Amino acid sequence: MRHLLSTRDLDRETAIRILDVAEDMAQTADREVRKLPPLRGKTVVNLFFEDSTRTRLSFESAAKRLSADVITFSAKGSSVSKGESLKDTAQTLAAMGADAIVVRHHDSGAAHQLAHAGWIDAAIINAGDGTHEHPTQALLDAYTIRARRFGAGARGRDLAGMRVAIVGDILHSRVARSNVWLLTTLGAEVHLVAPRTLLPHGVEHWGATVHEHLDDALAAAPDAVMMLRIQSERMRDAYFPSAREYARVWGLTAERLALLGPDTMVMHPGPMNRGLEISSAAADSERSTVLAQVTNGVSIRMAVLYLLVAGSSGTAEPTGVEG
Amino acid sequence: MVARTVLHDADITRALRRIAHEVLESRRGEGRLVFLGIPTRGATLADRIQRIVDEIEPGVSSAGSLDITLYRDDLAKTPTRTPAPTRIPAEGVDDAIVVLVDDVLYSGRTIRAALDALVDHGRPRVVRLAVLVDRGHRELPIRADFVGKNLPSATSERVSVRLVEVDGADEVTIEP
Q1: Half-sphere exposure of residue A190: CA atoms within 13 angstroms, side-chain side
Q2: Facing residue for B78 by CB, picked from A33, A308, A312
């Protein structure tokens, strides 16, 4: 693994390896010294063309815990045309000696272009590109589901037989896309729930079961219900009649919360629109993994940074004489 | 040429028993013992030694494992390794007598990394080192306090430790 651009090209073995390394990273949270040395002397650049406080802080914190030097480059508002701007920025960062670039961009495919255009020889981590993918979010969601279900016995396992419902704006959601590919690779059964207007074209080929009403998906007794944020900044057209209508048909209300099975977890990538896609009763309940997702996000990003940046290139596990 | 067995199962058991006695003796009747093995086989050996110590003097010791992957000095020069779990006993390492346990002592670089990893978990009163086999060729000023067997070897030779829990059999072999 040289870059992390998408969960679509992650095989089962690599995905489980990332989750397992994240378990090790999570352990350091309760130590006396929370810092680890493997990225000492390495430079990680956070390149954010789009606002995202949570993801940026999470990556920053992950890189710092691994002892990397962190540079944050907020390129928002640049008026240079996209292709050139990205190229110029990449070449600047290359000149600064960046070992890894965490990129968030409003255009789908930006991370891929950065990785393959030959502008820079650094590991590229996609922290969200347009409506395309957000692989570390999917990894932290899978980690959260696995940890909740299996606890200390989570290591080495996949999500075979688990049922996950993803609810909301599937059309614009990179979180949903990344999750569909990853959860499916890990053996889970994915159900998508959205108003017809918020389902992307060709969703029937994603290998997931599609429902138009939340109640139909809940009837399938999911192990996890993942509520997506209604992204008002992307709602340029009328996708649903009103917020109240949306909350009534697709929101996780207190009434629906009461119908969930005893072990069903409620997930949300944050930030939440309370009262719209998720009720406070659901967000603050015992079932909610919202805060665990934030904590696990740092562990997952530590694992990804470690696996991409610490070693020399090549993915083979070394064998040979130990010291 | 084939591998030559230098320690059979009974030899390994005897060596670990002797190490357990020596550790208890050096404790001089006080102090909490924490055996921390370096994965994979060091961790197995730490568990075994601790069980013997617990039979002789119950309740003064605990065992765990200390992974050193993230502290290696060759991380940037080799393909990325997957870390192994670290298990620190609930009482922690502060003020304890920590005995690091590994299967083979060779360059000493693993132990250097283990010492770095250890201080991130707390401040032991003393740190000792126990190894099943010391094959020489140190590259750092590190020595073991408790040694199962000194095994003079050439750098070209390969020393392998196999343990029942990991490999299905107990033996130490050397091959050219």
Answers
A1: 25
A2: A312
Residues in chain A: 323
Question: Does domain A136-289 correspond to CATH entry 2.40.170.20?
Answer: no
Number of domains chain B contains: 1
Beta strands at B97-105 and B61-65: parallel, antiparallel or unpaired: unpaired
Q: Which of A86-95, A196-205, B146-155 has the lowest mean pLDDT?
A: A86-95
Cβ contact B79–A315 (<8 Å): yes
Examine the predicted complex and report whether its ipTM is higher than 0.85: yes
**What is the pLDDT, as a whole number, of residue A30?**
81
Of B90, B93, B12, B6, nearest to B48 by C-alpha is: B12
Total-model pTM: 0.92
Burial call A110-145: b when 16+ CB within 10 Å, e when fewer: bbbbbbeeebbebbbbbbbbbbbbbbbbbbbbbbbb
* Cα separation, A64 vs A35, whole angstroms: 8
Question: Please, which residues 76-105 of chain B have a Cβ atom closer than 8 Å to chain A?
Answer: 76-86, 104
What is the distance of C-alpha B65 from the center of its chain? 10
